[in-house]
Amino acid sequence: MRRTAILPGALLACWFATSLACGADRAKVILDATNVQGGLVVHLGSGDGTLTIALRISDRYVVHGLDTEQENVRRARQYIQSRGLYGPVTAERFDGVHLPYTDGLVNLLVVEQAGRVSREEMLRVLVPGGMIYMKEGDDWR
Predict the structure, then answer these.
(1) Over the chain, what is the mean pLDDT?
(2) pLDDT in tens, 31-70
(3) Distance (Å, rounded) from C-alpha 97 to C-alpha 26?
(4) Which residue from 32, 35, 52, 84 has the highest number of Cβ atoms inside 10 Å of its Cβ?
(5) 11 has pLDDT over 60
(6) How far, in Å, are 17, 26, 38, 65, 97 from residue 124 at the CA level?
């Protein structure tokens, strides 16, 4: 059963900030809303990597950021390396359509920018009981 959660209004403004503390607040909201307790977390539309890093709240999580823009991936990798987290947190460019995972591998898919990735493609990569936390308009569900 998939649950829907809306990002609380108090944190909506924080969602657009780039500070590490704000990233941690956003990650906590996402992980609390989805109740994912570990495994592979994918951040689709990872941008500069701030939220990507913040989603790794413990050693139980491996986080992979995906973005279609090479410059975003370069910045994210640089940021991840500067925090000493490259390995358990990574960033990669992808084609914007196909998620680079086998079926049933991803525990949590955080989607800031879905681009041309279909809902079916997102569901394909989720483990049974996996969650998608997606931006829809101004809300997160």
Answers:
(1) 87
(2) 999 999 999 999 999 999 999 999 999 999 999 999 999 9
(3) 26
(4) 52
(5) no
(6) 31, 25, 19, 18, 13
Check: CB of residue 74 under 8 Å from CB of residue 44. no
6: three-class secondary structure by DSSP? coil
Residue type for position 52: T
Tokens at 53, concatenated: 């890093």
Cβ neighbour number for residue 40 with a 10 Å cutoff = 19
Order of strands, edge to edge, in the sheet holding 106-111?
89-93, 61-67, 39-44, 106-111, 126-136, 139-140
User: CA-to-CA distance for 56 and 120, rounded, in angstroms?
Assistant: 26
pTM across the whole model: 0.84
